[in-house]
Structures are given as structure tokens and as C-alpha cells.
Design goal:
UDP-n-acetylglucosamine1-carboxyvinyl-transferase, Chain, 13 helices, four-stranded mixed β-sheet, 2 domains, 452 residues, alpha/beta, binds phosphoenolpyruvate, binds shikimate-3-phosphate, 21% strand
Length: 452
């Protein structure tokens, strides 16, 4: 149990955040798929990115940590630089059976599944207990309809499973028998099913169209995948109004790059300025980005903040009346689901609460986040209900308690935010923040103690 610090007065702090999880993992994958070695700087060092590196190493990529980061990044914490040697093209890769630990990472369990048939005859995927509850079947279905062999235990329909390779590597010409050259995937439960296939498509053994079925959540993450692919020279065409992209097999090359700070993880720190007023600066906030977390600027402005984006980064100034303001607020976070637990913490402190809609897909995140948020807000004395897709907070939290985190990093930061305003919050297993922000406790304590 970790006692979350309270904040007695307005805040003033600069928080250097490590690199974005989503951008780091995409850069690792695209470097591993490239023709020539490349360097990636400002990478997030956390459990999810470590697992991604390990997985790509199983396919044959090599990662060497560089001792120094570029000077502009020297103030960052939790960052690292890597020289990445791509996965060799030779068929030697097919000789050894492969095993990939996905931990609790959606990125690893989805993105590496779609790559496995390209590099290995058989790959066994496993992960944490909680990962077996995360949706995976739509992606496995899409691959198996294409003719790729998948061994699943009878139930459940997620991890662990073994995935084989393309039919033609075992039975020549069987592509002609596969249903079609379109891979259709129902991505309504996670945008990562679609991103996984898009990331793999340039290395598919023949031209392929990736089609997304269902209502897509997390559009900025899909945009991120497409932008990153374009930057590496991928050859694809979007089929207008179809949610489909047609790819030609094509060599990729990631050029040396520096990862932007993680803007989703900026949320809890910006929240500190919302609750007690004052200013938080996040250095290196990009002026243009595909990160979902850039939406904090608009979202927190709606809740009364103002901000300045300059060479110094983003400086957010919180309102003085957040804890007493009775304006009604409704947010649709269908595109920005990753931000929901942090927004829920803020709304749970407001006298009139607030509603978050279109977040049904969060039931398949690290935990069922709608259920977890409902339980924890009630534990803290708030009034809250959920529907299949939304969280409705009608009156604020009133007292401290032991907050459960369900192995979910964003439930730990949810508790910490509430703790800034409500004394007596203790957080179970705060180390779960290691998933994407290993230095969370240090950074948080500095903000609470008002140290720059
Ligand atoms: O592509 C990505 O890197 C991610 C996409 C989103 O997944 P979902 O669409 O499953 O919510 C997001 O929540 C996750 O944290 C990261
Ligand atoms: C849902 C998340 O992560 P992932 O799906 O990559 O495990 C998250 O970081 O909030």
C-alpha cells in the first residue's frame, strides 16, 4: 500500500515525461522490419516496451542500448536510446520454436501476433493471467480465415495460443485456395487489431487489403500507425469510405528518430493543476502529433483550464474553482479511451460529477475499466453507475480508502489524482505503473512537494 500525497496549495512544477508507449513500440517494430539498422532515441523504458523488445528479439531483431541520448533529451527520465538491427530475411528464423511473453500489453499481444507468420513456423504467445481476458479472437479469426494455422485451447478465446505461418510455406500454391486476399478484422473492441495488420501488411507475401469492420475506437492510434508507416516508405492506398487499405509488399526504412513524450501519461500531472490551481509544464510537448493525449488541451480547456504551447513545452494553468464549479459536463471518449480513467478521477472530484460515453471497449483493457472505476468511486463515497458503454458520475467522492488497482497502471494514477484532494487514499500495488511509467511515484512526489 502506498499513501498518496495530498496537495495543500496550488501547484507549480515542470514534469519531464518519458517517451510515448505507443510511439516507442511502433518505432521498435518498424526498425525491426527495416532494411538497414537505425537508431531510436527517447524511447520509453517500461514493462510494455521491454516486452516488445524481447518479442522482436525472438523474431531475430537485435537491440543495443546506446550509452548517451542526444543533448536535447538529457533532462528526460525513464528514456533510452537503442541501435536496432532488423530481423534477418533468411529462413533460418524458421528453425527454432518461438515463445513470446505478452505480459499485460495489448500492443505486444496484438502487434506481434500479426507479425509472427512472417518470421516463424510456430510461435507460442502467453502472458499475465489478466491478459487472457483481453479480446484477441477477432485478430486470430482474421488470420485463420487467411489460411494461417492457429492452435487455441478450447476456451478462453485469447492467450495462450500458438500461431503458424502462411499456408504456402508448408503447402505450395495454397494461397489460391484461401478465401480472398482481403483480411477483414472486426476492430470494434480494439483499434489494435487493425493497427497490428497494418503494421504487418508491407511484409505480407502478396498484395493484401486490410479492412476494418465495426465501429472503430481510438482513431488517433490508427492515424499514428498509418503516419508511421508512411514515414517508413510503406506503399498503400486508402480505399475511400471503406475503412480499408490496400498494400503492396514493400521494403521499409525507419530513419533515426526521437520519440515524443507520452501525452496520455501527462494527464495525471496536468490534473494536479486542475484540482488545486497553478501551473504544470510538460517540456517537449509536440506542436503536431498523432498521440491521443494531445486531446488533453481541448478537454481540460472545457473543464476551465487555459494553456500555452511554446518552445518550453505545454504550460497548463488550472482554474481556481474546479472543486466547486457546478457546470454539467459530458465527454465522448470513443477516440480517446486511454484518457478515461484520468478524466474519471477529475469528474469524481466535481460537485456535479460528469458523464463519459462511448467507452465500452475499455471493458477489454488491462481490467474492465468501467467496472473498476465504478467500484472504486463507490468505495470512496461517490455516486456512480455504468451502462454497457458509459460511466455516469452523479456525486463526488467524499473520503479516503484503500484503492484497488487490478494490475492496471491507469487505476493507480486514478487513485493518486483523487489523493491530491482527499486525504487518506492508499493505493494497492502502485508498482503497476511500471507498465508505462516506472518513475511515476518519484515524479508524483516531486509535484506534490512542489519541486521542479
Ligand atoms: O495502438 C495503440 O498503441 C493503442 C491503442 C488503444 O487501444 P484500444 O483501441 O484497444 O483502446 C489504446 O487504448 C492503447 O493504450 C494503445
Ligand atoms: C489500454 C492500454 O494499453 P495496452 O492496450 O497497450 O495494453 C493503456 O495503456 O491504457
Amino acid at each position: 500500500m502506498w499513501s498518496a500525497p495530498t496537495l495543500s496549495s496550488s501547484v507549480s512544477a515542470t514534469v519531464n515525461l518519458p517517451g510515448s508507449k505507443s510511439l516507442t513500440n511502433r518505432a521498435f517494430i518498424l526498425a525491426a522490419l527495416s532494411e538497414k539498422p537505425t537508431e531510436v532515441h527517447g524511447c520509453l523504458e517500461a514493462r510494455d516496451t521491454m516486452l516488445m523488445r524481447q518479442g522482436l528479439t525472438v523474431f531475430g531483431a537485435r537491440f543495443e542500448q546506446l550509452s548517451t541520448s542526444p543533448t536535447s533529451l538529457s533532462a528526460f527520465t525513464g528514456n533510452s536510446s537503442w541501435q536496432i538491427t532488423p530481423i534477418p530475411k533468411s529462413s533460418e528464423n524458421f528453425e527454432n520454436p518461438a515463445e513470446i511473453d505478452c505480459g499485460l500489453s495489448g500492443n505486444v499481444m496484438r502487434f506481434l501476433t500479426a507479425l509472427a507468420p512472417i518470421f516463424k513456423a510456430k510461435t507460442y504467445f502467453y502472458g499475465d493471467q489478466g491478459a487472457a481476458k483481453r479480446p484477441q479472437l477477432p485478430l486470430l479469426d482474421a488470420l485463420s480465415k487467411y489460411g494461417i494455422c492457429i492452435d487455441l485451447p478450447p476456451t478462453p478465446d485469447s492467450l495462450p495460443f500458438t500461431i503458424g505461418t502462411f499456408p504456402h510455406q508448408e503447402e505450395p500454391h495454397s494461397f489460391q485456395q484461401s478465401e480472398s486476399k482481403t483480411l477483414s478484422v472486426d476492430s470494434s473492441q480494439s483499434s489494435q487489431f487493425l493497427s497490428a495488420l497494418l503494421l504487418a501488411a508491407s511484409r505480407w507475401p502478396e498484395p493484401v487489403t486490410i479492412r476494418a469492420l465495426g465501429k472503430l475506437p481510438s482513431l488517433p492510434h490508427i492515424q499514428m500507425t498509418l503516419e508511421n508507416l508512411k514515414e517508413c516508405g510503406a506503399s498503400f492506398q486508402e480505399r475511400e469510405n471503406e475503412n480499408a487499405w490496400s498494400f503492396e509488399p514493400c521494403p521499409l526504412q525507419l530513419t533515426e528518430t526521437t520519440i515524443e513524450p507520452d501525452l496520455s501519461n501527462a494527464g495525471p500531472f496536468l490534473a494536479a493543476a486542475m484540482i488545486k490551481g497553478g501551473q504544470i509544464t510538460i517540456p517537449n510537448w509536440p506542436s503536431k502529433t498523432t498521440q491521443a493525449g494531445d486531446y488533453w488541451r481541448e478537454l481540460l480547456t472545457k473543464l476551465g483550464a487555459s494553456y500555452e504551447l511554446s518552445d518550453a513545452g505545454l504550460t497548463l494553468t488550472g482554474p481556481n474553482d474546479f472543486l466547486t464549479n457546478r457546470t454539467e459536463h459530458h465527454f465522448d471518449l470513443g477516440d480517446y479511451g486511454e484518457l478515461a480513467p484520468t478524466l474519471a478521477a477529475l469528474l469524481a472530484l466535481r460537485p456535479t460529477g460528469g458523464t463519459i460515453t462511448n467507452i465500452g471497449h475499455l471493458r477489454g483493457h488491462e481490467t474492465d475499466r468501467l467496472a473498476a472505476l465504478e467500484t472504486e468511486i463507490k468505495r470512496l463515497g461517490g455516486k456512480v453507475s455504468t451502462t454497457e458503454n458509459s460511466l455516469i458520475i452523479t456525486s463526488p467522492v467524499t473520503h479516503g480508502a484503500k484503492v484497488q488497482t487490478y494490475h492496471d497502471h491507469r487505476m493507480a494514477t486514478f487513485g493518486a489524482i483523487i489523493g491530491l484532494a482527499i486525504p487518506g487514499i492508499e493505493i494497492e500495488n502502485v508498482e503497476t505503473t511500471n507498465k508505462t511509467l516506472p518513475n511515476f511515484v518519484d515524479l508524483w512526489q516531486k509535484v506534490a512537494r512542489q519541486e521542479d
